[in-house]
DNA sequence: ACAATACCCGGTTGACACGA
DNA sequence: TCGTGTCAACCGGGTATTGT
């Protein structure tokens, strides 16, 4: 449990273990006379025991002092001003000890500010990820990547056109080095999230007419794609780029792609048919 | 032990959205 | 505008549960 606190006399903000609060939650202990790294280390790693708090009561570092704070406890759903965060490296020796409770409106305003900032950060991360993906894909297209990848075994072999080519690839990737090459190849396909990456990879791997012969686990008289070593390569490539994706999410998305491949196939067939009709 | 039922998972389909 | 991707609703088969 953490408390987010604002140091009134410095316009600075910090978070500390909740147990560092005084009994009335109006004051907090804080390590004084230590460098920033040490302070961070203490806050991050040694957070919740009374024993730890006692560590700060080092007479030489004046750690018994209790700084003056306005505090926002996460017990109360409190939050902080994001536009006014100062480095605590410039913290002066605290004086006095009067705490001020924020009112409800302040709480709400602070919470909204933090949520807004969080959304902005998420957006920025997504944008950056997209840019990285674009750069990587561009490099592949322009053959600027590692020469070994230019001549990769799979450039000419994918997408797979029939079941015998599946067997061929399965045989090839029994060799660990070639398997890793496939993983690298699929990894560089990229995708801003795991779903898009799965779809891009599957599209690169299988023609629709082959994809319709497979389902995730092989139900309804279809072949089980997840039993293939190719699937393991897909799985590893996705995990490498989106490491928080679960096995279940990957398998489900691959299964869904395969399940929908019939629709893709028939729609492309229909469209080709309609095109031919128009030409006649 | 067996049959009936409920539930879950995966496949199919059609509509809509999106990007080139 | 067209081709393709995505999503949601629906359907069906398999499996677990429950009652007899």
UniProtKB/TrEMBL annotation:
Per its UniProt record, what Pfam families does this chain match? Answer: DUF4806
Span of domain DUF4806: 157-230
Q: Which residues form a coiled coil?
A: 118-145
Q: Does the keyword Phosphoprotein apply?
A: no
Q: Which UniProt keywords apply?
A: Coiled coil
Entry-linked InterPro entries: DUF4806
**Keyword Coiled coil belongs to the record:** yes
Composition bias of kind Low complexity appears in 87-99
Region (Disordered) residue spans? 82-102
The record's annotation in PANTHER family points to:
SI:CH211-262H13.3-RELATED (PTHR34153:SF2), SI:CH211-262H13.3-RELATED-RELATED (PTHR34153)
* Protein name, per record: DUF4806 domain-containing protein
Origin species, per record, is: Aquatica leii
